[in-house]
Amino acid sequence: MPDPTAFSTLKLKPELLSNLSEIGYTEMTPVQARALPKLLTGADVLARAKTGSGKTAAFGLGLLNKLDATSYRVQALVLCPTRELADQVAKEIRRLARVIPNVKVLSLCGGVPLGPQNASLQHSPHILVGTPGRVLKHLSKGTVNLQALQTFVLDEADRMLDMGFAKELDAILGFVPDDRQTLLFSATYPLAITAISARVQRNPQTVDVTDEEQPALTTQHWCPVTRENRCGELLRALRAWGGALNLVFCNTKLDCAEVAAYLQARNIVAVALHGDLDQAQRTEVLVRFTNRSASVLIATDVAARGLDIKNLDAVFNYALPKQAEVYVHRIGRTARAGLEGVAVSLVEQREEWRLQVIKSLLPDATLQQREIPGAKRSADLLVPTMTTIQINGGRKNKLRPGDLLGTLTAEGGVSAEAVGSIDLIDTCSYVAVRNAQVANALRQLASRPIKGRRYRVRVRK
Fold this sequence. Notes:
The chain has helices at about 15-20, 30-40, 55-65, 85-95, 115-120, 130-140, 155-160, 165-175, 190-200, 230-240, 255-265, 280-290, 300-305, 325-330, 350-360, 400-410, 440-445, and strands at about 45-50, 75-80, 105-110, 125-130, 150-155, 180-185, 205-210, 215-225, 245-250, 270-275, 295-300, 315, 340-345, 365-370, 385-390, 420-425, 430-435, 455-460. By secondary structure, it is α/β, with parallel strands linked by helices. Helix 3 packs across helix 4 (about 85-95) and helix 14 crosses helix 15. The relative contact order is 0.10.
């Protein structure tokens, strides 16, 4: 009897099935197993699943399975609430589409000039992934044409509504053809989601896998602190409970900057993500964290919306959020896919009333007071194993990950095992290399041409 979670049970193009095996997708997650058979029939789907559940691959495979790569028109549009999520979705779709020749995926997000996006749109992409504001701007200017659209996806629709994009969504619907498939993915089902589904979908098939997903195995502590010793106690907590990837939440961008400076001064490789960063800076911060060149990411809730960081070891609340529900969202970023995680909150006496409200949302005795252990662990997990190298050439230079890997490993250069994540954006590329091989990697990249051209390289710190 065939395994019902096997991708081979689906009516997918052979090249897509082969690629899934190559990239290590061995069996479907609950949302994939429930949603894919429905959306592959062309039905509208309203799916409820947590972030990190594999929903991107679900709708990505659906839109790619019916894509005509020989027709250079926009056939799929994916809307996301944030730039970071849009970039992650575009990257995943490109990975799923790599076996289909000449598929073009374009990200349209704010924070970058319109000019380069206009130039890319002149060679019409097959798939657009973007944020509502920037997509609407292109539609209004006539630089995007959706007449051939087949698939319309609203990813994390609940967050889009929370962030005030209802008007933009309504305006975009005026440009979307009626004859289309609409896929709506959300982590929650507030009344607003039901209302928007009724407006944009036709007899949607409903999928809800939140009860089937593995419960998070998160150990939760809270530790009493004072205003004066909060930074020092955070450092002690990181050393006691932190791992290779740690997310610290602050309530303000000023706190983000202060905490980052405090940790950096004590030789912790920490990066901050907040509203004052431009898009290039935000991209670099996230690349360095996700490729394990930085061990601590400090972020506000607004900046962290839409981030899906795999294998996050621990979440730290530098300060409790003002809304108790936000606490649940914060700690839900660790212990995904059945892995264990830890969440630690620093609490001043004046904040204890917030703590009581948060406890009322949790099962009894879930959130326990703990003293921070004084002894440092023998192996300091906060020291990153990788270093990020930036190359001043990217996708617009027709570079591919294989080009960079080939240059790094040529003629006795860096061992392939020492090369980690390779991230290409439009104008530059980032390569993670094991610390011991950084000097060798810099020599290889500086002394050898990549596809016939030499590029500047530098270490990002």
